[in-house]
Amino acid sequence: MKGMSFLDELYKEIILRHYKSPHNYGPLDSANVRVKGDNPTCGDQIELMVLTDGERITDLRFQGQGCAISQASASLMTDLVKGKSWAEALALEQQFKAMIVDGAAPTPELGDLAALSGVHKLAARVKCATLAWNALEQAAHQSGALLRESKH
Amino acid sequence: MAIVTPQAIRQDFPLLRRYPDLVYLNSAATSQKPEVVIETISRYYRELNASVHRGAYTLSVQASEAYEQARRTLARFIGADEREIIFVRNTTEALNLVAYAWGLHNLRPGDEILLTEMEHHANLVPWHLVCERTGARIKAIPLGPDGRLELEALDSLLTPRVKLLSVMQVSNVLGTVNPVAEIAQAARAVGALVVVDGAQSAPHMPVDVRALGADFYAFSGHKMLGPTGVGVLWGRYEVLETLAPFLGGGSMIREVYVDRSTYAAPPQRFEAGTPAVAEAIGLAAAVEYLTRLGMDRVWQHELELVSYALARLDEELPEVRTFGPRGPDRSGVVSFVLGDIHAHDVATALDQYGIAVRAGHHCAQPLHRKLGVPATVRASFYVYTTQEDIDRFIEALKKVRDFFKDWL
Question: Any idea which architecture A3-151 has in CATH?
């Protein structure tokens, strides 16, 4: 039993703030890449909408439902990768997953996402934290296909 | 027999003895196992293991006899004839057996299957698969705001097009005890076959399948102190006799040629291959344990716990919204949400205080859609659950409420 101190470590205020008031939340009508992700066993769902020229994430928003960890992770992720290139975004995904899945120390580039590092100790919740990032990776693939088409 | 306290019962469970601080409130998902069940399985492999229904040698005859004795024990437990007990893996497989062995061969386009809005996915998806292949359609008895089925709808739903009705006796989320005998009678009046999902009732209350008026009754061993990998499908013998086989293979045949075969009589017709012998014998030991406690008392104990838990939640935690009916038609299951905090976050927080609960949709997505919440937290009780467990659960929930108080 870890009690209150572990809860403090896991549910940092910034996590709960993003959960209650997520950034970049709601429809993005101009999106040209849309990805749906879900964790069927727990019912968490996310839709990621991205406007991209194939190389850069010009804008992105998300909507869906889920726990504090999945929603805060999605909210913080959209803040972080907006305006970045897909290569930069995928590098951040690797750093985030290294922190959550492998327990690596958070890199400075992850910024506020470091607040989610405690999730590593909860095997049952890892998939909540990575849901939005898996959707981002899928969006990168779709965006790559978009780019190839436009060059034809 | 003296009344056995849940504190004394706990001492029969090695896992609960090992973790004295664990408050295990997820018995609706799977129960813990008493010493006698673990020992029975161990003894089978140490002293009795042999191929059943095949060998001519003494050990095989003894193993076969133990397996058939388990069948008789299970039959007695639900008021059935031993020829009507089919050992399967679990409730899910039992329901699939009916769907495939009966549904595929008897349903036609335009026929209807009547279910309810509170069913577990195990009593939905097999029927979806059968409908895709036969052209039959599904209708559902609606769920009312009090967590009970709206039986007024039965009159209009039960037309002669309904060929099968399948309903859970007790809801795994709401705890609702459905009036199955009444529903079965109405269904039979239009000629429909009646299937009962007993996964949440057989472990918790006295069951007499004949009094229910059902044709099939399905339940799992692991939710009733028995091992995983074994469950029971009971079927009325007259109906079982008309069914095609489900799985083909050894043990279920009469004569086999290279290009065709004829099949054994029930129950063997539905037990292809080497069965889960140790598990079936272990389940019989679990049923004998429950019978010694007395199923009336098991049910009474859960009624007391659930009304105690609900009363305390109502009184002391106004931020908690519980689901399910209030009254004697309510089993030992409390599903709830805490303000707007997601069920998974509540369950993770409770776990930090040693409280094991389940969070999610509990394999009942249509029900949660109807309730208007994506997920609930569920605390479920059983024979070893004590009032102290409920107290510790409530106190931990208060701490969780306080922790999230600015975010409710």
Answer: Alpha-Beta Complex (3.90)
